[in-house]
Amino acid sequence: MSEDPVLAGYRQSIDNIDAAMIHILAERFRITKAVGAYKAAHTLPASDPGREERQIARLRKLAEDAKLDPEFSEKFLRFIIQEVIRHHEQAAGR
Q1: What is the 3-state secondary structure (H, E, C) of 12-63?
Q2: Cα(21)–Cα(27) distance, rounded to whole angstroms?
Q3: What is the pTM of this model?
């Protein structure tokens, strides 16, 4: 059975978006790794709860404006923040 061409087109677009998201996440983590090294070198705390909450509020608003579920966007961002903090703690040897 051959694949539906409309469905194949949608799936190709999804595959392209997934690839772009991976590259964007890789770039984000490259930068946060540098932040972690900087924080470790200057004995700064691995997390900044105030900034994290401001970022979550900002991205929830962006999600709402983009018609994306803000609850989902917050969960996604909190997961990323937890990973970044874990990397920063590793950089600091904690």
Answers
A1: HHHHHHHHHHHHHHHHHHHHHHHHHHHHHHCCCCCCCHHHHHHHHHHHHHHH
A2: 10
A3: 0.81
Quickly tell me which residue has 């392209």 as its tokens.
16
Nearest C-alpha neighbor of 80 from the set 58, 62, 55: 55
Q: Write out pLDDT tens, residues 42-92.
A: 999 999 999 999 999 999 999 999 999 999 999 999 999 999 998 888 888
How many Cα neighbours within 13 Å face the side chain of 86?
7
DSSP 19: H
- Please provide the distance, in angstroms rounded to a whole number, between the alpha carbons at the two ends of the chain: 55
Both tokens of 15, joined, read 């595959």
- Residue 76, token pair as written in the block: 């996604």
SS3 91: helix
